[in-house]
Structures are given as C-alpha cells and as structure tokens.
Specification:
Order of helices and strands: HEEHHHEHEHEEEHEHEHEEHHHHEHEEEH
Structural class: alpha/beta
Number of strands: 15
CATH superfamily of the largest domain: Type I PLP-dependent aspartate aminotransferase-like (Major domain)
CATH class of the largest domain: Alpha Beta
Shape: globular
Strand order of the largest sheet: 3-11-10-9-8-4-5
Number of domains: 2
Distance between the termini: 55 Å
Radius of gyration: 22 Å
Helix content: 40-55%
Largest sheet: 7 strands, mixed
Length: 412
C-alpha cells in the first residue's frame, strides 16, 4: 500500500531539490546564543535566531528553570481544566497581562495553538474576519477553523480602495470594513511585525478604522513582545495604541526566553470565554513547569530595565546603516529582522542558498528563504540581530556579507 505514495514522494522531493527549493536542516551542537557550534565542531556567529534579547541561554533563566523543575516537577500530564493548573501558571498569566497592559491572559503550548484557538470561539457564520494578506501561517490556519466570512486586505493598505496584486483584486482595509457591515461581529487580525519583511503593522490606523466601523482588533505580536516600544511591550506600545487592541497573541519562544509556549492576552470576558471554548487550550497538555518558571524570570528582568531592548535597538540601527552603505538591497525599517533581498537576480532561490552556504564558511550562520516560504522572485537572507551580539560580531558579519556579496556580484 505504501509503494505508490513512496514513489510519488521521492519524485517530489527530487524535483524540489532540482528546483533549488529543498530546505536542509543544519545541526547545532551547542546551546543557543550569539555564538554557537555546528556539526563538525565549527564555531560560528548566529544571525538567524529569534533570540532578539539574547535570553535563550541566560544563566538567570536556566537557574529559574532548574528551580522550578525541582519544586514543581517535570510535566503536568493533563490539560488545564482537569488537573493541569498550578499556582505558577496563574502567576505567569498575571505577569504577562501586566506587562502587555491587558486585562487577562490564557497560556498555550505555543502561539501557533493560541492562533489556532482564538477565532472559532467568538465568530460564527454571521460574523466576519478581516485579515492582512501577509499574516502568519498560524493565523491562516486558525481562520480556516472558523466559520466566519473571510476578507483579505492588501498588505498594510488601509483605504477604501482596490489594487491589483499578481492578477488578483485585493481591497484596502476600509473597503473590507464597509463590505462587511452587516456582520454580527467583525474582527480585524494582523501580525504586529511581519516576519519575512520586518515591517510593522499600521496599528494606529487599524484601530482608528476599527473604532469607526465598530470592529474588534487582534494582533499577533510574536516578533515584537519584549523589545518593540519604549519599554518593550510590543507593537501596540510602539504605535501608541495600548488599551485599544482587544486581543494579543504572542510567543515565549522568541524574545521572551526562546523555549516554547505562547498565550492570548485581552479583554477579561474574551479570555474567560477562551478558557471555556478554545480547543487547543481544552485538549492540549499544560505548559511545562520549567518553561513557566523561566518565562516568569524573563518577565521580571524586562520589568526591571530596558537595557536589553535598548542594546538591540542600537545594534539594529548600526547593522542596517552599514549594510545599506555597503550596497545591499534591504527592506527599510527599524526592526531587527533585516531582509537582504535577491529577487532581482536570476535563480534567486539558488543564489540565496549559495550565499548562505558561503557565509557559513566565513563563520556567519544565516539561512536563505525562498518559495514557498516567500513568493517567487522574493528570495532573501533574513538576518536577525540580537542584543547578544557585540559590535565585533556585527562588524564581522558585515565584512563577511560584503566579501560574499562581491563574489556573487550582488554588490560591486
């Protein structure tokens, strides 16, 4: 029975390799950090982790995780409403709520689960979901589980307009809001920061339109929590709309420690309803105690000082300025996601992979991104700057990029 699909899969895998679209997995043989060791014993600088604040192997987090492991055990073996709620889970929810400036928080095994369980409990076939065209895959999958009518607006286009995108007509957000006015409830959902481009959602304009047309707003802030905004609360702080966003989903697996886990924060009644109806919460194991303990320590550290997010901001500005001056095609912005674009070159997917491979020889660890992760003709290397990087790290990466860029005639 397995024979036919086995042969088909082998052909598809080989075709993917020949097209230059096959994703290889590199093996790391050390803890996560700005400096890592890869298979074979080579030490390299890591410029492609979501370790924005450099906390993934912070000694205080490791100590807190050990202490929690000793005190609260290894795992819960249960879901929350049966026998899977410890005091520390409630304490973390309170800490996250206070940090984000929201009324309440519900924990999930991952932000993917949070996004998978956030729409269906509130929205039925008489409701409408209005989504940015470039929303994360987890939002898209969550939307698919919901019976609400779906509207997709052109990426960050706010107006009552319609544009042509790759042969498809896409409306602006205001047009979608006008077209959906007969819905019982409407929810505008967007990434806070779009992970492939590093651009920031126009949350101030989104909230203004939501107020005008009586809609709710949900933001996935996975690439923002802990460092965007003056005190690191996220894009709602960065855009000046704290108190105006109804639901925020985010992860503890990026800037907030880098382990696992996620949450939804929001209005008290909405979070309580998620506890009653959100399927990934009701039917998935509780977040492990050691992850809870480590994340609580992150909340403490970030509430005491903005030192790490300030250092990250400085590193990001320096890297962006130097790489732009070197002649690379970089999507402008202020976020530590810095996309180095190759779309204007022939065989851009293969170029991105060859470029990344050559950089590994220069002890710079990055990954090429290409279709289907990004649209065809938009291949790139997505550099991610960290507070854990020193100025020497940044200068070494810039020099390596410049050397390999000239080798491949990407820059002159």
């Amino acid at each position: 029975m397995y024979g036919k699909i086995k042969d088909d899969l082998r052909r598809e895998i080989e075709a993917t390799r020949e097209a230059g679209l096959f994703k290889e997995e590199r093996i790391i043989t050390s803890e996560q950090g700005a400096e890592i060791e890869v298979h074979g014993g080579k030490k390299v600088l890591n410029f492609c982790a979501n370790n924005y604040l450099g906390l993934s192997s912070h000694p205080k987090l490791i100590e807190a995780a050990h202490q929690t492991l000793d005190e609260w055990g290894y795992g819960m073996s249960s879901v929350r409403f049966i026998c899977g709620t410890q005091e520390i889970h409630k304490r973390l929810e309170k800490m996250v709520s206070e940090f984000l400036g929201m009324e309440d928080t519900i924990l999930y095994a991952a932000c993917f689960d949070a996004n998978g369980g956030v729409f269906e409990p509130f929205l039925d076939k008489d409701c409408a979901l209005i989504c940015d065209q470039l929303n994360h895959a987890s939002i898209i999958d969550g939307v698919r589980l919901c019976k609400a009518r779906r509207y997709v607006y052109a990426h960050s286009v706010m107006g009552d307009t319609e544009i042509d995108f790759q042969g498809k007509k896409l409306s602006g957000l205001e047009r979608c809001l006008k077209e959906s006015q007969n819905a019982k409830y409407r929810l505008v959902c967007t990434d806070g920061v779009f992970s492939m481009d590093g651009d920031i959602a126009k949350l101030d304009e989104i909230c203004d339109l939501a107020d005008k047309y009586d809609a709710l707003v949900m933001v996935d802030d996975s690439h923002s929590s802990g460092f965007m905004g003056k005190t690191g609360r996220g894009t709602h702080e960065h855009c000046g709309v704290m108190g105006r966003v109804d639901l925020i989903t985010t992860t503890f697996g990026k800037a907030l420690g880098g382990a696992s886990g996620g949450c939804t924060s929001g209005r008290a009644e909405m979070i309580e309803w998620l506890r009653q109806k959100s399927r990934p919460y009701l039917f998935s194991n509780t977040l492990a105690p050691s992850v809870v303990g480590g994340t609580m320590k992150v909340m403490e550290l970030l509430s005491e000082t903005t030192e790490l997010r300030d250092r990250l901001e400085e590193n990001t500005k320096y890297f962006r300025e130097k790489m732009t001056a070197a002649g690379f095609d970089i999507i402008p912005g202020v976020h530590p996601i810095v996309p180095i674009m190759f779309g204007k070159f022939p065989d851009d997917a293969k170029l991105a992979q060859a470029f990344a491979s050559d950089l590994l020889d220069e002890e710079i660890y990055v990954i090429g991104f290409f279709y289907p992760v990004v649209p065809k003709g938009h291949s790139r290397i997505r550099v991610q700057v960290s507070a854990g990087h020193t100025r020497e790290h940044l200068d070494k990466a810039i020099a390596a990029f410049t050397k390999i860029g000239k080798k491949h005639n990407v820059i002159s």
